[in-house]
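User: Just a sanity check before I run the rest of the batch. Below are the structure tokens for the first item. I only need the designed sequence back.
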């Protein structure tokens, strides 16, 4: 599978260099030079990763990141000359998977891109996922715990696989609402996600009141615990 990457960068020289580096690795690349264009392209295309500058004309990079993460699970790498701890923390707090400061090592950049995309490649090629004493069968939409099948509704199964496919990453309730139920925005959507998370925990967690797998990130969303991935 050829991964498709969106670059949102207002400096043509840097955008061109990034495009060259990524295309040389075999990725499909589209470039936007403003935050507005980046948001429009994200709405029109299915990307696997976004590389985002913070200092953009018009809509700034943090706002772009926040808007995308409100309704999408797509990973974002922030690439910025802003190197203050507060900038890095702000970027990570609103959902970016990585933060790279300019100037940067080209090879390190490619390695970080590859590391993030390897998670997507890993989940795409799996027929079943094993986590402790759980087995998630992606072909049959079935989940087993200690060899015994757990009865999940279709939405509960979709919710679980959405979380597992981004294990270790925080996913907003808005993004889960869109991925699982197909709603961009909906009154009551937050409660819908919350209730289904609670139901799912009751079925898979040893202690639903002290979850080990589906974790809350207060004010941000939900995160499935990190899992080891084998190529």
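Assistant: Here's the designed sequence for the first item:
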């Amino acid at each position: 599978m050829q991964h498709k990457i969106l670059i949102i960068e207002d400096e043509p020289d840097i955008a061109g260099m990034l495009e060259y580096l990524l295309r040389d690795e075999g990725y499909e690349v589209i470039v936007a030079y403003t935050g507005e264009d980046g948001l429009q392209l994200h709405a029109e295309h299915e990307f696997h990763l976004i590389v985002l500058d913070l200092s953009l004309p018009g809509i700034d990079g943090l706002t772009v990141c926040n808007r995308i993460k409100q309704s999408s699970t797509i990973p974002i790498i922030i690439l910025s000359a802003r190197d203050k701890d507060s900038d890095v923390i702000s970027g990570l707090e609103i959902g970016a998977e990585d933060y790279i400061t300019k100037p940067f090592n080209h090879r390190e950049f490619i390695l970080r891109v590859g590391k993030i995309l390897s998670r997507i490649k890993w989940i795409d090629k799996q027929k079943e996922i094993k986590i402790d004493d759980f087995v998630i069968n992606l072909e049959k939409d079935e989940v087993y715990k200690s060899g015994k099948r757990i009865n999940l509704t279709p939405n509960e199964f979709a919710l679980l696989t959405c979380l597992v496919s981004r294990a270790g990453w925080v996913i907003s309730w808005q993004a889960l609402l869109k991925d699982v139920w197909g709603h961009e925005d909906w009154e009551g959507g937050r409660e819908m996600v919350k209730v289904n998370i609670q139901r799912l925990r009751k079925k898979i967690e040893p202690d639903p009141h002290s979850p080990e797998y589906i974790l809350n990130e207060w004010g941000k969303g939900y995160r499935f615990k990190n899992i080891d991935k084998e190529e």
